[in-house]
């Protein structure tokens, strides 16, 4: 049977009638049994009426205030969400248009018959990079959609953790800015152990966190790795970049929110990476959080269950 929720105005009216009915019924009976003088009875009933008006007014004020607070809070949340969505869509438009313009523009240039081999190869390389950038944006949107609808799947298998970390290190070391050092820290106690987890998803989390660290670290170092904590593995990505404001530290994993809204165009990206990381980590049975000092850097941590073949 479908549950039907009573509307607020009906609750309010029903409460008023019930309280008033009980008050009149029981108070009149008590007064008539104690007071026989009609004059005094009339005076007391007048005061009783005023008392009821005052008491019910105070009760309904408290009731209305509580419900109106919820309504106003929901309205503020909806307005904020709408504002964040608008900012997100504007940023997405920018993120899609930029590589698309690059692809269309350089495809037109390739039509020229007077291009040298070097020019043609350079244009093809730019088109390839723009295509990968556009594909990354589309994949982020699809991943977030799967997470939001609960349709994301985890494919568990044997993963040689240190080999995976070496691959991640190799793929990111080539794209660092000058003056930024990348280091990898491994847990030697389980150096050769095989972890039972989703290799693709784990690599996606590390790639997102490292890409985020590179985006906001112009000098200094970025360190990533893992250590064992009882039945969990604690992964970390630490940077010496610009850091995150304390007011934003708990909100950066929310969809549509970014810690550097005013520098979105400078930093680039769709701003979905951290929300995707949180969704994947949660689905894999772990937790993710961040610690940061503004102007000194940010440390991201996430845990995953330490499952081996013997645990299957």
UniProtKB/TrEMBL annotation:
Class of this enzyme: transferase
GO molecular function: ATP binding; phosphorelay sensor kinase activity
Protein localization: Cell membrane
Keywords annotated in UniProt: ATP-binding, Cell membrane, Kinase, Membrane, Nucleotide-binding, Phosphoprotein, Transferase, Transmembrane, Transmembrane helix, Two-component regulatory system
Catalytic activity annotation: ATP + protein L-histidine = ADP + protein N-phospho-L-histidine
GO CC, one annotated term: plasma membrane
Transmembrane feature ranges: 12-27, 47-64
InterPro entries per UniProt: HATPase_C_sf (IPR036890), HATPase_dom (IPR003594), His_kinase_dom (IPR005467), HisK_dim/P_dom (IPR003661), HisK_dim/P_sf (IPR036097), Sensor_HK_Regulatory (IPR050736), Sig_transdc_His_kin-like_C (IPR004358)
Domain Histidine kinase: 91-308
Lineage: superkingdom: Bacteria
E.C. numbers: 2.7.13.3
Name used for this protein in its record: histidine kinase
Protein species of origin: Marinifilum flexuosum
